Amino acid sequence: MQAFSNILYIAQHSEQQGSALKQAVNMAKLTGASLHVVDILPPMKNNAEERQLQQTYSEKRASELADMVSKYQNQLTVTSAVLSGRTFHTAIQLVLKNQHDLLIKSPENLSYLHKLFSSDDMHILRKCPCPVWIAQPQKQPRYRDILAAVDFDFDDDGQPLANRLNEKILSLADQLAEQSGATLHVLHVWDAPAEIMIRSWADHAEDAGDTYVEKIRSQHQKAFKQLQQGLAGHNNIQFHLLKGIPSKVIPEACQHLDIDLLVMGTIARTGIPGFFIGNTAETVLEQLTCSVVAVKPDEFISPVTLD
Fold first, then answer.
1. What is the pLDDT of residues 160-203, one digit of tens each?
2. CB atoms within 10 A of CB 305
3. 29 dihedral zone (left: phi>0; alpha: psi -120 to 50; beta)
């Protein structure tokens, strides 16, 4: 199981605050991690009167946070602070400075056109180097169904390559499922990208298309079976191998399976800071109504740096 040691929770003055904070506390207690609770207010104004008003509010908010975390101080190491700055930039700088290994926050603009993520949420998901957990208010005390979405790369001979990102996704999803007593669903969505072209232009197009699709399906099924063997012995786990476009099928699967939490990877090209390939990942994120944990590959480099 993946262990966390230093969790950052981004607090918000909102009605969904209590549920998300409780999830952060539970994760810290489960893993023995310290928890740092931070509220990030807008940058200080230039006008002296407005700056004084903001300072007064900051002090009031600091007192509220201190009261909020005080009831947990006999259960874990927890601190609180109020800072000012752009939310996503300040949060990621805290991750870099303090080496936080998990960032948790509740979503902003929860009711806006049923979209889960605000601009700051998406910036954090794209650019934060550690796993990011956007915790939607829970409908029940614990998660019941958690989905881990995995993907595969293949060598020139069609053999699956080692995938450290899959390992990180599965480790974290398994840990969260164990914590909640939830069913763990493992999903892989495969596609045959040249199918339409082959069925349109090849000699004996139908047979050629069927042969091509079966070859791709068999390749992905073999990789998925190998992954399943690595999880042998786990209880309360279901596997789903589906054909289609991942950006469409993953959100549909979340809805169909009534998923409470999706654990998925975001992909970045080595050496290009903050390059978020995410046409798939980002499109998925924009369609979700459940909580999500986004995991970066080891080689990810954040475009945010310490000033």
1. 877 899 999 999 999 888 878 899 999 999 998 888 898 888 88
2. 10
3. alpha
Instruction: Calculate the alpha carbon distances from 81 to 26, 65, 135 in Å.
Output: 20, 7, 20
pLDDT reported for residue 232 = 76
Beta-bridged to residue 185, according to DSSP, are 147, 238
Q: For 200-256, write each residue's pLDDT tens digit.
A: 888 888 889 899 999 999 999 999 999 999 887 777 999 999 999 888 999 999 999
pLDDT given at position 215:
93
For 76-124, the pLDDT digits (tens) are 999 999 999 999 999 999 999 999 999 999 887 655 444 556 678 888 9
Sheet of 183-190, strand order: 78-84, 34-41, 6-11, 102-105, 132-134, 291-295, 261-265, 145-150, 183-190, 237-243
Of how many residues is the chain composed? Answer: 307
| 8 A C-beta contact, residue 36 and residue 8 | yes
94 with 217, same domain? no
Tokens, residue 53 = 């008003």
CB 139 within 8 A of CB 297: no
Domains in the chain: how many in total? 2
Pair 104, 157 in one domain: no
59 lies in which domain range?
1-137
User: How is 32-66 classified by DSSP, letter by letter?
Assistant: T-EEEEEEEEPPPPSSHHHHHHHHHHHHHHHHHHH
Alpha-carbon distance of 173 to 1, in angstroms, equals 9
- Pick from 106, 174, 102: nearest CA to 138: 106
* Same-domain check for residues 109 and 209: no
- 3-class DSSP state of 155: coil
Distance between CA 55 and CA 32 in Å, rounded? 34
Nearest to 118 by CA among 285, 279, 3: 285
- Write the CATH number for 262: 3.40.50.12370
This prediction's pTM? 0.87
